[in-house]
Amino acid sequence: MNFVIDIETCPSQDPSVKAAIAATIAPPGNISKAETIDLWNKEKKPGAVEDAWRRTSFDGSRGHICVIGVAVDDADPVALCAGAHWYENEAYVLTQLFEFIDAECAKHPNVRPTFIGHNVIDFDLRFIFQRAVILGVTPSRHIPFAARPWDDAVYDTMTRWSGTKDRIKLDHLAKALGLSGKGDIDGSMVWDYVNSGRIDEVAQYCCDDVSMTRDVHRRMTFLPAPVIIFECDGLPF
Predict the structure, then answer these.
(1) So what's the pLDDT on residue 226?
(2) What is the pLDDT of residue 229?
(3) pLDDT of 15 over the 70 cut
(4) Is 2 helix (H, G, I), strand (E, B) or coil?
(5) 3-state class of 69 per DSSP?
(6) Within this chain, do residues 165 and 69 fall inside the same structural domain, yes or no?
(7) Rounded to whole angstroms, how far apart are CA atoms 62 and 181?
(8) Rounded Cα distance, 1 and 175, in Å
(9) How many Å apart are CA 139 and CA 133, to the nearest integer?
(10) Per-residue pLDDT for 112 more than 90?
(11) Based on the domain organization, do 91 and 207 belong to the same domain?
């Protein structure tokens, strides 16, 4: 049984985090004149603070999960999301994920699941674990949070393709394999979409990434595409 998983994350919503980041941002060392420093603080510092704050979306100790996409085997992906109330319901979304995994595993108690994703070991699973700890949500025992790239419990399409010391974007890998790439949204745009009330589009983007990851996994493991049976007058042909 395979679980294909992908998460979308947002920067910290704690104002004190952004304030702490701002306190650490200083002008370059080659600027010494007071008027030049004042100009840098006025024109350059806000952008530097914003960039550093946005990067907290990669840090499970400060960022947040807004959408989780998951699919079991060949089933359609499911987006777990609390809509406009994503921030205050992050723990609920994690609970949904863990209950979903437990329910599916209960159907096949003698089958060890494999968790598939792109950079799933170092990002998705780690981030999920960190947020579960912080929010006090007990995870599913089936999730291999401590897995290594060579473990059978996980299949990380990025490390299987590039090794542990290199990286490749999912979009680039999909295109290299002759698959359709991403659409109008990419990961750098997630917060802007969420912040403008378009989280439903982020949820669809997340599900599309799950489907793309599953297609990449099929190609990399030489699995055939699922057979689609058409019906005419109730009879398959």
Answers:
(1) 72
(2) 55
(3) yes
(4) strand
(5) strand
(6) yes
(7) 30
(8) 26
(9) 9
(10) yes
(11) yes
Do both 163 and 208 map to the same domain?
A: yes
Check whether residue 86 and residue 123 sit in a common domain.
Answer: yes
Beta strands in 101-171 (DSSP E): 114-117, 154-156
| Residue range 82-111, pLDDT digits in tens | 999 999 999 999 999 999 999 999 999 999
If you search the block for the tokens 């698959």, which residue do you land on? 179
- Structural contact between residues 194 and 202, judged by C-beta atoms closer than 8 angstroms: yes
Distance of CA 105 to the CA centre of its chain: 22
Taking the alpha carbons of 143, 147, 153, 158 in that order, is the dihedral positive or negative?
positive
Predicted structure pTM score: 0.92
Task: Please state, in angstroms and rounded to a whole number, the distance separating the CA atoms of residues 152 and 108.
Answer: 17
Question: Strand, coil or helix: what is 142?
Answer: coil
Residues 18, 21, 23, 27, CA torsion sign: negative
CB-CB contact of 3 with 115 (8 Å): yes
Is 234 within the bounds of a domain?
no
Number of domains in the chain: 2
Greatest distance between any 2 Cα atoms in the chain? 82
| Coil vs helix vs strand at 79 | strand
The residue type found at 80 is L
156 beta partners: 117
